[in-house]
Amino acid sequence: MLRVDQTGTILIKNGTVVNDDRYFKSDVLVENGIIKEISKNIEPKEGIKVVDATDKLLLPGGIDTHTHFQLPFMGTVSVDDFDIGTQAAVAGGTTFIIDFVIPTRGQSLLEAYDQWKKWADEKVNCDYSLHVAITWWSEQVSREMEILVKERGVNSFKCFMAYKNSFMVTDQEMYHIFKRCKELGAIAQVHAENGDMVFEGQKKMLEMGITGPEGHELSRPEALEAEATNRAIVIADSVCTPVYIVHVQSIGAADVICKHRKEGVRVYGEPIAAGLGVDGSHMWNHDWRHAAAFVMGPPIRPDPRTKGVLMDYLARGDLDCVGTDNCTFCADQKAMGKDDFTKIPNGVNGVEDRMSIVWENGVNTGKLTWCQFVRATSSEAARIFNIYPRKGRIDVGCDGDIVIWDPNQSKTISKDTHHHAVDFNIFEGIKVTGIAVTTIVAGNIVWSDNKLSCVKGSGRFVPRPPFGPVFDGIEQRDKVRNELLRKVDRKPYEDDNTKNSSK
Ligand code: URQ
Ligand code: ZN
Ligand code: ZN
User: 57-471 has which fold?
Assistant: First the structure.
């Protein structure tokens, strides 16, 4: 599809700019992909594209911190690839995604990184970056982590505590990985579920004849997420390095994060659109396809309170930035687990509907202000991953990634109208009020009037420098705590014989 405007230059008039600290009426001029001027009554130069944003909000382009496009996983490949996935992203107002390189155990991280980057560079329709998963530990991994940080623009590494016998690492390996993250100034991310207990829970369910999707949640209740979340935070804090819990899916896990934050631990939590927009009761649906569509890990929780409580945490700033974990599989792929839920490829959609789901469940419920919405869907992610204010803010010099948002327009989410490749939408039938009517990437319109106008492969890889704001003050915290570790000077122990012989 040809982009309607290749110049990266556009004038947006009469909108209300919303950043995470304030909002104000203004025109915005983007030139060659960079925001050039923000002021009232900017006169358009000859030939410049002008868009009227009267009664609309201008938001910083959304940032999705967690996607898995075309991920080889559980014997298949997720169907939203970097082209379709980023089309769906911009159709919902997201203009920057961070995907995951996931090396197989024993595979070179650099080799896997190069493969993922090749896949992405050929297809992305918006800017992107890459986290790297650490699925094994060795001197080689340690060396390659340094190269990824110093030469490839990676500042985040993910450990899986789940997926025993595939991605899962031990506590001891995680300890060494976290130490390495600290040395390199990279944030340690964790998929926090007790993988050994999940493995036992899965066996138990199958032995009991519970083979359907409901067995997925029953085998890995939220206690296993909360326990692993606590363990990951304790290990990270023992190293005194910032830790980021991905896809926080339960009240239990959120409570653990809150407890440690109150004690001054540098921990961040990422809720996802699924956990903020639906609940896990769908896994008990009598239609197998419907139930299997909601299978992901950690499970979307059946407790109906969860989505509201997670939104409350997000509003208070006790959870930080919203991802999606977009990892989609069609019916025939999910059916690989039709007789055994442990074989259902884990993953759901989210990248297109994320911002409207957060607006509907956050702003329209009175829990989030406009500014808090921007924080949750864009700027906090940019800060944590050290690309603020290039991304996550509408200001002079920032990237021209802008969403024209209509807070009063509604739509009903459906697989029949979404832009994903997947044949199911976990938000099916949900009416949302608050949608992206125009999405601008690097000063070019890529979504408008309900139509995409992307240029495949036009997105850029954005390197993320180490030692971002998440590391501020970490050394001092470490120093103060280490000063408390003192040895006691005492006389050497003497048993009675030694005592008598010295008299
Ligand atoms: O665990 C993840 O984040 C990846 C493998 C996607 N699948 C999922 O169920 N979350
Ligand atoms: Zn995960
Ligand atoms: Zn994931």
Answer: TIM Barrel (3.20.20)
Indicate the top mutation candidate among 64, 68, 80 to test ligand 1's pocket, ranked by most ligand atoms within 8 A of CB. Answer: 68
Output the pLDDT for position 5: 53
Residue 117 annotated as lining a ligand binding site: no
Question: What is the model's pLDDT at position 501?
Answer: 84
Residues 6+ apart with CB under 8 A from 4: 444, 445, 453
Residue 223: alpha-carbon gap to chain centroid: 22
Q: Which structure tokens are listed for 444?
A: 């070019």
Instruction: Report d(CA 67, CA 65) in Å as an integer.
Output: 7
Distance CA 137, CA 83 (A): 32
Task: Give me the residue spans of the domains in the chain.
Answer: 57-471
Q: Predicted confidence band at 79 (pLDDT cuts at 50, 70, 90)?
A: very high
**Residue reference for tokens 């410049």:** 48
CA distance 296 to 216: 8
Residues with CB under 6 A from ligand 1: 68, 73, 191, 296-297, 325, 327, 346-347
User: How many angstroms separate the alpha carbon of residue 67 from the centre of ligand 3?
Assistant: 6
Cβ–Cβ under 8 Å, residues 295 and 341:
yes
pLDDT tens per residue, range 370-429: 999 999 999 999 999 999 999 999 999 999 999 999 999 999 999 999 999 999 999 999
